[in-house]
Amino acid sequence: MDPVYPAAPLVAPKGSAELQPAAEQQHLLPPAPPSYDQATTIPAETTGPGPTPTSAPANSSTTQHTVVVVPASPYGPEPLDVQCPYCHNYARTRVSFKPNSRTHLIALILCLLQLYCCVCLPYCISSCMNTNHYCGMCDRYLGTYDRK
């Protein structure tokens, strides 16, 4: 089987206007992108109005800090209308409440205060528990609203 691409660059035979010589094809290529060092350094000279950037001394090291912001959960304590990432339907979420460590701590404090008849109250009050959201159509888990 013959190779699909030629091994050498195409060069037109003398007198042919269809293909250009390899040396003339070089100027048709776009310039190479800058290196990483060239792209990340601030040029020393600026053209135009405005303050000129001050450069740090050559012997001092500069540190760049990257701050990653994690968005808060879009879910709250109440059901809300969302587009499910699984079934792609717009539906109101179904919520269920799950006890967390705060719920157990409140029950323990009520027990230590000898309020035995009130120990079950934190497990019945939704504001003492986390809220799990599920899709109203496909019933898949979407997220949790953590009580703090």
From TrEMBL:
<feature type="region of interest" description="Disordered">
    <location>
        <begin position="17"/>
        <end position="62"/>
    </location>
</feature>
<keyword id="KW-1133">Transmembrane helix</keyword>
<dbReference type="GO" id="GO:0031902">
    <property type="term" value="C:late endosome membrane"/>
</dbReference>
<protein>
    <recommendedName>
        <fullName>LITAF domain-containing protein</fullName>
    </recommendedName>
</protein>
<keyword id="KW-0862">Zinc</keyword>
<dbReference type="InterPro" id="IPR037519">
    <property type="entry name" value="LITAF_fam"/>
</dbReference>
<dbReference type="InterPro" id="IPR006629">
    <property type="entry name" value="LITAF"/>
</dbReference>
<feature type="transmembrane region" description="Helical">
    <location>
        <begin position="105"/>
        <end position="125"/>
    </location>
</feature>
<dbReference type="Pfam" id="PF10601">
    <property type="entry name" value="zf-LITAF-like"/>
</dbReference>
<comment type="similarity">
    <text>Belongs to the CDIP1/LITAF family.</text>
</comment>
<dbReference type="GO" id="GO:0005765">
    <property type="term" value="C:lysosomal membrane"/>
</dbReference>
<feature type="compositionally biased region" description="Low complexity">
    <location>
        <begin position="39"/>
        <end position="62"/>
    </location>
</feature>
<keyword id="KW-0479">Metal-binding</keyword>
<keyword id="KW-0812">Transmembrane</keyword>
<feature type="domain" description="LITAF">
    <location>
        <begin position="64"/>
        <end position="147"/>
    </location>
</feature>
<dbReference type="GO" id="GO:0008270">
    <property type="term" value="F:zinc ion binding"/>
</dbReference>
<keyword id="KW-0472">Membrane</keyword>
